[in-house]
Specification:
Layout lengths: L3 E7 L9 E9 L5 H9 L2 E7 L2 E6 L8 H11 L2 E2 L1 H9 L9 H6 L14 E3 L4 E3 L6 H9 L3 E2 L5 H7 L4 E3 L2 H4 L8 H22 L19 H12 L4 E3 L7 H10 L7 E5 L4 H11 L7 E3 L10 E5 L7 H5 L3 E6 L11 H7 L13 E10 L12 H7 L1 H4 L2 H12 L3 E7 L9 E7 L6 H10 L3 E2 L12 E8 L5 H22 L8 H12 L6 H30 L11 E5 L3 H14 L4 E4 L6 H13 L5 E4 L12 E6 L6 H8 L11 E8 L3 H21 L2 E2 L10 E4 L4 E4 L2 E5 L12 E3 L2
Parallel strand pairs: 1-5, 10-15, 10-18, 11-13, 11-14, 12-13, 14-15, 19-24, 20-22, 20-23, 21-22, 23-24
Antiparallel strand pairs: 1-2, 2-4, 3-4, 6-7, 7-9, 8-9, 16-17, 25-28, 26-27, 28-29
Length: about 750
């Protein structure tokens, strides 16, 4: 009995809603081989049922067109049968689309069928794959978009004659392979070549060695790490821009400067950084540059420097926009590029232009050799669609550009959920109006996204955990062993009640005791709150009250740890970095530290004015043995190195996991020589403790979405197991390394690609 494939449809529920589709694959357990399970997972499916020898896999219902392509692909590669309920529609969309209807049909017109109405056919040029389609053929257009293909822009008569009035294209071999059953022999040969190249790129994107690296100039006595040479090489050789997404602390700044040194023709270079990193960038470029003719200047407020290398911070881009647009740049390096995650933000549009405009207008001009290089340790800050500004600006030939391509990307990797809301009129006596609001959906097809990113030859991400030169990091929940007074217990109960009530009002989230899952739902809801709403300000009040309650108890715990080491030899002592969110909480912790260890703690928060003062605090913490602790806020979440500490205590975790990963990696980075201990402090048995665990769990999940190339689902007879790392309290899944296998029976052009992590 072969596999059966069915594509199911859920009709729209209200005006403005869109139909949703999901794919169901069923069959005997023995038919679900590892190769088939990998293929299904790549296409966003997961196991749904395994009973009495029958296995069922399903995808989530989602908008974006019926994924009939998957039915054809499984039939072609694995001899699956298409369910009768959807076979007619699945065959109709790929067959010849006879346009003779209406008066032509009545008169018996025998005109030739246009290319876009012929049976689906995929051909290839030297770089791209193309599929025939007409602009008016809505069903085929939805079919192609559901497979991840992009409409061809800037049509001409020659293309229209050969492929129809609205053909589709892709340069990505993983997206192209979704339409492999309809490929010409030439297209299949190109697919084979591109997959082989993608395999090499994937290995290079994970490599910590300098294998195949170019020679990069460096000043005498200085040199780049082998893995940094690999990143520089990829950026120089990329056919477009590059996204260097190495883990925090692996020296992305040095790779950016190495790219400058390795690009001798680059004479006009723009560096965009955060304000606290502007001085450091200028200092490091002067130290590492090998072209003595390059001058370096720092932008100040609305004064833009007349220099070869101009360093400017995101905050003052708008003040200098005319000066920057007057220059054609050979290289634009955007440090902490996740600052441009929102395509509608002024800073994003100042650099990349209007990404939601069809023409992408007003991007900074590039020279003939110009390219973008984006540096970030958190390429996906909170949601997958936040990747779009970075990948579409570096490789529009792969990811596309403009609102239509952005929607295709979202439908494939984070399909939005459409919600109908009734909005009250702002005018007295006015009628309420209905609005359709697209809410961010859950991420799907993360494995395919990983392959596309890494296989592009323009994306590189190495993790510190894989770097043999870095010690391990342990993430641990720390429940504070304190006895709360009656008044404190009452205050804590009040805070928890406020939080639970607020979440239930804003997001229909029920918060139950003992359930990390519900706490995780709370985190998801909080990160979606609009900062301008009353709910957001109420949440800020609740969080501050909780932090104020915890602060003195956490301070005592932290200082006790430090005082326990006072008789240790200097090399055995460990400085502590403390993270807190609110200024009032920071003041309480610092005041407690001053009582017992006067002058031993520094503070790095938003109240520290200039970039020079901030750098002085960091330098003193790193160099002065008398300094035992540093209290930081979100102001210190990027760009600073605190490797003299191997211990961090988180008093108030930020509820954005990506921010917490940034904070943790201030001490876990190149230069760290000790095992790193990250402790999340909470009051035992409270919602605070459960939310802390949920944040840690969500960090693990988010790290997998852009870090790991591993399958979560094996064959049904070899179910993945869950293990707990006792040292860190984090979950680790036994996962299967990715191997894209060839199908000898089908003459599949896809070679084996061993993409081991």
């Amino acid at each position: 009995m072969p596999l059966k494939v069915n594509v199911k449809r859920k009709d729209a529920k209200f005006k403005g809603d869109k139909p949703k589709y999901n794919v169901v694959v069923s069959g005997p357990r023995e038919t679900f081989t590892p190769a088939i399970c990998r293929s299904l997972e790549l296409n966003g499916m997961g196991p749904f049922m395994d009973e009495d020898g029958l296995v069922v896999w399903s995808s989530m219902p989602q908008i974006g067109g019926a994924p009939y392509y998957l039915a054809h692909l499984l039939a072609y590669k694995h001899k699956a049968t298409i369910h009768p309920n959807c076979k007619k529609q699945a065959m109709s969309v790929i067959n010849r689309r006879d346009p003779r209807d209406g008066i032509d049909h009545i008169l018996g017109s025998q005109g030739a069928i246009p290319a876009g109405r012929m049976s689906l056919n995929v051909i290839a040029s030297s770089t791209d794959f193309a599929a025939n389609c007409d602009e008016a053929d809505t069903e085929r257009r939805e079919f192609l978009e559901a497979a991840g293909w992009l409409p061809i822009k800037n049509m001409n008569s020659k293309i229209a004659q050969k492929l129809g009035t609205q053909p589709y294209r892709t340069r990505d071999p993983f997206i192209a392979s979704n339409l492999e059953p309809f490929m010409s022999p030439g297209a299949k040969n190109l697919l084979k070549e591109k997959l082989a190249t993608a395999g090499k790129n994937i290995k290079a994107s994970k490599s910590h060695t300098a294998e195949g690296a170019i020679e990069v100039p460096a000043p005498e006595g200085l040199g780049f790490f082998p893995f940094q040479l690999g990143g520089i090489t990829m950026a120089v050789n990329s056919p477009g821009g590059t996204l260097i997404a190495d883990d925090m602390g692996l020296g992305k700044t040095m790779q950016g400067i190495g790219i400058i040194n390795a690009t001798p023709k680059a004479e006009k270079i723009l560096i965009i950084s955060q304000a606290n990193m502007r001085i450091k960038w200028g200092r490091e470029i002067e130290k590492w540059k090998t072209n003595s003719a390059l001058t370096v200047g720092l932008a100040e407020s609305s004064t833009f420097p007349d220099a070869n290398v101009c360093v400017i911070n995101y905050d003052i881009l708008q003040k200098n926009i005319d000066a920057m647009r007057a220059i054609k740049w050979d290289l634009i390096i955007c440090d902490e590029a996740h600052n441009m995650k929102n395509p509608e933000a002024q800073r994003t549009q100042a650099v990349l232009g209007d990404l939601l405009d069809m023409d992408g207008s007003k991007a900074l001009p590039l020279s003939d050799i110009g390219k973008y290089v984006h540096l970030t340790g958190t390429p996906k800050p909170n949601r997958i669609d936040e990747l779009w500004p970075l990948i579409s600006s570096t490789r529009p030939d792969i990811w596309g550009s403009g609102p239509e391509d952005f929607q295709i990307f979202k439908n494939r990797y984070c399909p939005p959920i459409l919600i109908k809301r009734e909005m009250k009129s702002r005018f007295k006596g006015g009628k309420p109006r209905e609005m359709i609001i697209p809410m961010p959906g859950k991420p799907i097809r993360e494995m395919e996204l990983q392959l596309r990113l890494r296989g592009s030859g323009s994306f590189i991400r190495r993790m510190k955990r894989d770097n043999p030169d870095l010690p391990p990091k342990f993430r641990t929940p720390l429940e504070i062993p304190v006895k709360l007074s009656k008044a404190e217990k009452e205050e804590l109960r009040s805070v928890e009640f406020d939080l639970a009530a607020l979440m239930e009002r804003t997001g229909s989230v029920e918060v139950k005791e003992g359930r990390t899952l519900q706490a995780g739902a709370v985190i998801n809801q909080i990160t979606r709150l609009d900062p301008d709403t009353p709910q957001f300000h109420e949440m800020a009040r609740v969080r501050r009250n909780l932090g104020m309650l915890k602060a003195p108890h956490c301070a005592k715990f932290i200082i006790d740890e430090l005082e326990a080491e006072k008789d240790f030899a200097l090399e055995n002592r460990t400085k502590t970095v403390v993270f807190a969110h609110h200024k009032d909480v920071i003041k309480i912790i610092h005041a407690e530290a001053e009582k017992r260890m006067k002058g031993a703690f520094l503070v790095y928060d938003g109240s520290v004015g200039s970039a020079k003062k901030k750098q002085d605090i960091v330098d003193r913490f790193q160099a002065d043995d008398k300094i035992r602790g540093l209290i930081i806020s979100l102001a210190g979440n990027s760009g600073i190195t605190l490797t003299q500490s191997a211990r961090m205590r988180v008093v108030e975790p930020d509820w954005s996991p990506s921010n917490m990963i940034q904070i943790e990696d201030r001490i876990w980075r190149i230069g760290q020589e000790k095992n790193v201990d990250i402790g999340y402090m909470s009051v035992a048995g409270t919602l605070d403790a459960r939310i802390g665990m949920a944040i840690a769990d969500k960090m693990e999940t988010d790290e997998r979405s852009v870090n790991s190339i591993t399958f979560r689902h094996n064959a049904p007879s070899q179910k993945a197991s869950m293990e707990v790392d006792q040292s860190s309290g984090s979950r680790a899944r036994s996962e299967m390394p990715l191997v894209l296998e060839s199908d000898e029976n089908q003459g599949d052009p896809q070679p084996a690609l061993p993409l081991f992590e």
